[in-house]
Amino acid sequence: MVAGYWCASARVARRWLPGLLTAVAALVAMPGPAAAQDTHVIVIVGVGGDEEHSTRFTTWAGAVVDTAKKRGVADANITYLGERTELDAARMQGRSTREAVVKAFSDTAARARANDDVFVLLIGHGSFDGRTAAFNLPGPDLTADDYKPLVDRLRLQRVAFINTASSSGAFLEPLAGPGRTIVTATRTGGERNEPRFAEFFIAAYTGDGADRDRNGRVSVQEAFEYAKQRVTAEYEKAGHLLSEHASLNDGADGKLAAMQFLAPQRSRSTEMANADPALRAMVEQRDALERAVAEWRLKKDSMDPAAYEAQLEVLLTDLALKTRQIRDAEAKK
Q1: How far is 225 from 163, CA to CA, in rounded Å?
Q2: Which region holds residue 116: left if phi is over 0, alpha if psi is between -120 and 50, else beta?
Q3: CB 226 within 8 A of CB 259
Q4: Average of per-residue pLDDT across 230-245
Q5: 73/71 Cα distance (integer angstroms)
Q6: For residues 271 and 265, is the Cβ–Cβ distance under 8 A?
Q7: Which residue has the higher pLDDT, 307 or 202?
Q8: In sequence order, what DSSP letters do the residues of 12-64 get, joined into one string?
Q9: Between 157 and 296, the higher pLDDT residue
Q10: Are 277 and 329 in contact (CB under 8 A)?
C-alpha cells in the first residue's frame, strides 16, 4: 500500500514538475517591487497583576520587539506600550493606557501604505462577563468591540491581530474580516484560566523550532501551529485536562496566515543589497520560491490531493535547499 502510494505520487510529481519549474523560473525572472513592502508592529502589554507576571510579560514583549528589529522592521514602524515603563524603558514608547493604544492604531494607519503588513500582539490578562470580553489595561480596559473600529482603520493593510490573554476567544467574531488574521489563546470567552499560549507563540519567533518549511522566516500560521502543539504537549505531560484551545480565523483556512510574517517580505534581500552578486542572486531565488509556495497553497482546495501534495513537496524541498545554500554562503563570510 505504501509503495503504491509513493509510486503514484512520483507519477503525479513527474506530470506536474515541468509546469512547476516553468512557474518558478518565471517568478525568479520577475523584477522585485519598486519599493519593499513594509511591516508595522504594535506590541501591547496589559496589567500584570503582580511582579512576576509584569516582569514575564515585559520580557516576552521585549523579545518580540528585538526579533522584529533583527528581521528588518524599521524602528519607526514599531510601537511598544507597556504597563510599567520602568521595566523596559529603553524599548517602550509609553504606558499601555486606553488613549495610548487608540493613538498607536491611528498613527500606524496614517503611516502604513496599502498592502503593508501590520502585526498586533497583546500580552497580558483578559476578562469576560458573559457578554463582553476585554483586554486588561492600566486604567479603563478596551473591549473586543472597542478594538473593532481600531482594526477597521487598517482596511487597506494585511493585519495579524494576536490576543494571547485569557478569554480572548471572544475577540474572534467581532474582529474577523477580509485581509486579516485573528489569533486567540482560547476558543471562547468562557476559557478564563491563564493560558500557556503566549509563552510558546513568542518562542516560535525567537527560536528556530517553528520554521517548518525552513525558509528562515516564521509565518503566523507556523507560529500558531507550533504554539498550539506545545501547549497540548505541556498539558499532557502534566496529566491535566486541556483548558485552553487556541483559535485562528483568517477567512481562508490558514492561507492568509501562511503569508504573514514578523518581518518585511524582502528584508533579508535588502540586507544583501551590498553583498556579492552570486549571494544576492541566491536570495532572490529563495524569495521567488517563497512566493511560489504561497501561490501554490492557494490552489489546495481546487486540486487533486495527491497532485497538490506532490508538487508542494517539490517546492518545499527546493526552498529548504536554497535556504541552506544561502546560510552556508553567509557562514563562509
Answers
A1: 15
A2: beta
A3: no
A4: 96
A5: 6
A6: no
A7: 202
A8: HHHHHHHHHHHHHHHHHHSPPPSSPPPEEEEEEE---SSHHHHHHHHHHHHHH
A9: 157
A10: no
Output the nine-digit C-alpha cell for 85.
Answer: 515603563
Question: CA geometry: angle at 153 spanning 152 and 154, to 5°?
Answer: 85
Which of the two residues, 296 and 84, has the higher pLDDT score?
84
> In angstroms, rounded to a whole number, what is the distance separating the alpha carbons of residues 164 and 149?
20
- CA–CA distance, 324 with 198 (Å, rounded to integer): 30
Fold of 39-259: Rossmann fold (3.40.50)
- Every domain of the chain and the residues it spans: 39-259, 266-333
Contact 220, 164 (CB under 8 A): no
CA-to-CA distance for 314 and 212, rounded, in angstroms? 15
- Is the pLDDT at 142 greater than 60, yes or no? yes
CA distance 29 to 34: 15
pLDDT tens-place string over residues 100-121: 999 999 999 999 999 899 999 9
**pLDDT tens-digit map of 36-73:** 478 999 999 999 999 999 999 999 999 999 999 998 99
- Cα–Cα dist 186/164, whole Å: 8
Nine-digit cell at 110? 496614517
pLDDT for residue 213: 73
**Could you give the dihedral angle defined by the CA atoms of residues 226, 228, 232 and 234, in that order, rounded to the nearest 10 degrees?**
60
- Identify whether the C-beta of residue 112 lies closer than 8 Å to the C-beta of residue 73: no
